[in-house]
Amino acid sequence: MNIFIKNAEIITMDKENPVISGGNIRISGNKIVYVGKDGVPCESDKIIDARGGIVMPGLINAHTHVPMTLLRGYADDLPLHTWLFDKIFHAEDRLDSDAVYYGAKVAMAEMIKSGTTTFADMYFFSESVAKAAIKAGMNANIARCVTGKEEDFKERLNEARALFDEYNCENDGAVKIDFSVHAIYTCGKQAVRETSRLCKKLGANMHIHLSETMKENGDCYAEYGKSPTEMFNSWGVFENKTNAAHCVYLSENDMNILKEKNVSVSHNPTSNLKLASGVANIKEMQEKGISIAIGTDGTASNNALNMFFDLKLCALLQKGIRLDPTIVSAEDALFMATVGGAEALGRADTGRIKEGNRADIIILDSFAPSLIPVHNPISLAVYSASGAEVKTSIIGGRIVMEDRELKTIDLEEAKAKVNESLKRMKLI
Ligand code: NI
């Protein structure tokens, strides 16, 4: 389909020309073919009048576990290790592929409704996540998470390989399959080495949890005498383009390794606060030139998948803890949630509104009171928008939501199936 968006305040995320006022965008197939003040619609175009509203790149959620919507609000207000080992892992043992499929659909509905067009997922029953993403029309980097201190990781790695063979580059490249080692505290040397080797052989991306808590670092030093970053580096993880979630406790040397290996950090401010893990040193990472993205983490630890919230929190948190309002500007935060996310996910063709890029675009309601007046569209997107202003969402040139109506997800069905699954698994 050809789409012509007119009369827009376009946030391009282009360094030279970040905002085009009164601009137009033309989409042909899955690509943006024109961005600027001119351009004329063709006869075959569907014309969308943004009525002076903000049109911006779809947000990129660089770290989540979408099926965890099933466990939203299931266990709150606990320390990470108690929460994870005593609550979440036990509940997860009861999940099945059907529950994950519909849980993922609810997550995708939430993401689309709050402006996310692309996400990176790490979980299991990942085939269900891939099927749901294809149906929803979302861009997704999906990884079957590998865990195991002994030989028990092998079956999981085989599943990860099968997932890659079946789903990588599906849906016109919208779905990419990553590899994942869960974390230093759940994986042994052999699991990490073999997963890293296979990832490299297949030219895929790696998605990990890294230095999320002080306990994780302390245990790692006690066991190996080195930091999680140093261990993963020595086991070959960073020979792959890696998306490392959290990175709350990094030493100077760790940061140098991440920079040298071109590792992207996905910062998860809400999850880190809710689990009282701490606050990542975003300013130091910026100064080192480390590429930073933003993630929500799963809904059991956030408890939402709304990137607008984490985007704002990212900017506010750094200012607050350093008593410096000039650091992590609105532009910086939005860059992380768009271009930084694209870099983390190995997707150079999204995150910016520019000719030749995939048409992953959201249109905000120009009559939303929270977006009036328009002094600075980037400031509005970061500090004023809540996600509810997202009116229309286009992913890969396909309209997946129009005037708040979801076009690719039957939410009523997904909700009923989620509740049915939870009853079956005795989780509700
Ligand atoms: Ni996580």
Gyration radius (Cα, Å) is: 21 Å
Bound ligands, named by name, code or SMILES: nickel (II) ion
Number of discrete helical segments: 15
Give the termini distance in whole angstroms.
43 Å
Output the CATH homologous superfamily of the largest domain: Metal-dependent hydrolases
For this entry, what is the oligomeric state of its chains?
single chain
- Relative helix content: 25-40%
- CATH fold title of the largest domain: TIM Barrel
Largest sheet report? 9 strands, mixed
The CATH class of the largest domain, by name, is Alpha Beta
The stretches of 5 or more residues where confidence is low (pLDDT under 50) are none
Count of beta strands: 17
Mean pLDDT comes to 96
Total of domains = 2
Set out the fold topology:
Elements: E1 2-11, E2 19-28, E3 31-36, E4 45-49, E5 54-57, E6 59-64, H1 80-92, H2 97-113, E7 116-123, H3 126-136, E8 139-146, H4 153-167, H5 170-173, E9 175-181, H6 189-202, E10 206-210, H7 214-224, H8 228-234, E11 242-246, H9 252-260, E12 264-267, H10 269-274, H11 282-288, E13 292-294, H12 307-322, H13 330-344, E14 361-364, H14 377-384, E15 390-395, E16 398-402, E17 405-406, H15 411-424
Parallel strand pairs: 1-4, 1-5, 6-7, 7-8, 8-9, 9-10, 10-11, 11-12, 12-13
Antiparallel strand pairs: 1-2, 2-3, 5-14, 14-15, 15-16, 16-17
The protein binds nickel (II) ion.
Write structural notes for this entry.
It contains 15 helices and 17 strands. The protein is α/β, with parallel strands linked by helices. Strands 1, 2, 3, 4, 5, 14, 15, 16 and 17 form a nine-stranded mixed beta sheet that branches. An eight-stranded parallel beta sheet has the order 6-7-8-9-10-11-12-13. Strand 2 (19-28) and strand 3 form a beta hairpin. The radius of gyration is 21 Å and the shape is globular. The chain binds nickel (II) ion. Nickel (II) ion is lined by residues 63, 65, 209, 245, 297-298.
